[in-house]
Amino acid sequence: MYSIGTVAKKTGISSYTLRYYDKAGLTPFVKRDAQGRRVFNDDDLDSLALIRCLKQTGMPLEDIRQFISWCEAGDQTLSERLAMFETQREAVVAQIHESLKNLQKVNHKIDTYRQACQAGSEAAVDCDVISKRSSAELLKQVAAYEIKHPL
């Protein structure tokens, strides 16, 4: 069993946010001790990781609350949960495509400024032309970057 402070350290979710999630109805699974303090177990940490994931993908708290409610309702809501995650996957894929387009622009500027540094002047390079690459090409570029710059 973990205290709210320990959970905050383990998850990176602040104590304030954990309390907010509780008041917002996102953590009905969290138990309380005899003094009324929240106590978390390992399953709760997994649930918090999922809540954080959904939040980071842009899912509104209201939808996350609905998901939690469906989980508590049991197997009769499996199809609703599946539909929710399929919809969220589409949203994440759209975010990835948008991020890839942004990455392409950032990489273009890096290339431009490298050329300008080598030439000694920004005026010596063509700053306006961005080559168009497919999502697959951009994903390969991201993978190559990750190999060169591991976390």
Automatic annotation (TrEMBL):
InterPro entries: DNA-bd_dom_put_sf (IPR009061), MerR-type_HTH_dom (IPR000551), MerR_fam (IPR047057)
Entry annotated with the keyword Cytoplasm: no
UniProt keyword list: DNA-binding, Repressor, Transcription, Transcription regulation
GO MF term list: DNA binding; DNA-binding transcription factor activity
Top-level division of the source organism's lineage: Bacteria
Domain HTH merR-type: 1-70
One Pfam family cited in the UniProt record for this chain: MerR_1
Protein name according to UniProt: MerR family transcriptional regulator
Organism from which the protein derives: Lactiplantibacillus garii
